[in-house]
Amino acid sequence: MITLSFIDVRTSGKEEIVDLTARVREIVAASAMNDGRALLFVSGSTGALSTIEYEPGLLQDLPRLLEALIPRKGPYRHDQTWHDGNGHSHLRATLLGPSLAVPFADRRLLLGTWQQIVFLEFDNKPRQRRIAVQLMGE
Q: pTM for the whole thing?
């Protein structure tokens, strides 16, 4: 069996990390499937999905790491072409990726104790994001 649901997220255009875990849990719990996997996908080239321990220290550490790897003020050819100042956003999103698969059993996500599902906004302007959640299982 396969089902499709959506999670809508409005972002402010600053680097944001949004915890989606509760919403994905609700989708899995409400489904007719006991076991399977949830595939999450965000449309767009400046957002990403991942897992993290959603706690204040890591919510500061991850952006700091990404700034060290891919600085906002880098010399990006994308910015020279489009003049939109978000070349770093595209590269950060590419590094982490637009999708995530999480297994579930007995209608419960098989996440670790401190592991949450997160959406990462990298763009430099407010966005309305739609994250597809496709459940596959039985």
A: 0.95
Residues contacting residue 39 through CB under 8 Å, at least 6 positions apart = 99, 100, 101, 132, 133, 134, 135, 136
Token readout for 47 is 């957002």
Here the CATH number for the domain that contains residue 72 is: 2.60.120.460
Looking at the structure of the chain, the number of domains it has is: 1
Residue 13 DSSP symbol: S
Residues 92 and 101: their CA atoms lie apart, in Å, by 19
pLDDT tens per residue across span 72-85? 999 999 988 999 98
- Residue 94: which domain range? 2-137
Collapse the DSSP code of 67 into the 3-class scheme (helix H, G, I; strand E, B; otherwise coil) and give the result: helix
